[in-house]
Amino acid sequence: MNLSRKKRTKAATAGAVLLAIMLTMSACGSTTKETGANNGQSNIPTVAPTDNLPNENGIMEPGTPSTDGQDDNKATNGGDASESAKISAEGIYSGQIDSTSIEITTGDGAGAYRITEELTAVIEALPFDSKVKFEYIEKSVEDDTSIKQLWLTKIEEVK
Predict the structure, then answer these.
(1) Based on the domain organization, do 40 and 86 belong to the same domain?
(2) pTM flag (> 0.90)
């Protein structure tokens, strides 16, 4: 009787393992098919951000030299309505977020500021946690005017 109990336990365990493997395989199989079907769709969002490049949509970053002059830059950005006047402030340079953005902590809290290639050399020379004086403009996002991007136009260390 003890021997048949062991056989039943082994059979039940083997059945449970087999059931778990089958469920895992069926779940993986359907995910693989969905992933394969979604691969074509997932390429669409990864391609979409490249549509926002300045060369493709005609919008140039602030401080980027224009081949046709400043009037062309204002025309493609929607004129002065999308950009504000230069704002001066002081804060603590926290560091570079990525190759196009830095973080500066002001009295209002930490903020992310977009930078141009011209400011990259100045930014790289700044030590972390240094006090800085900077100027920036607020620029509306093309699709949503309630969202503002902060673009640095000038930055220098205060000694």
Answers:
(1) no
(2) no
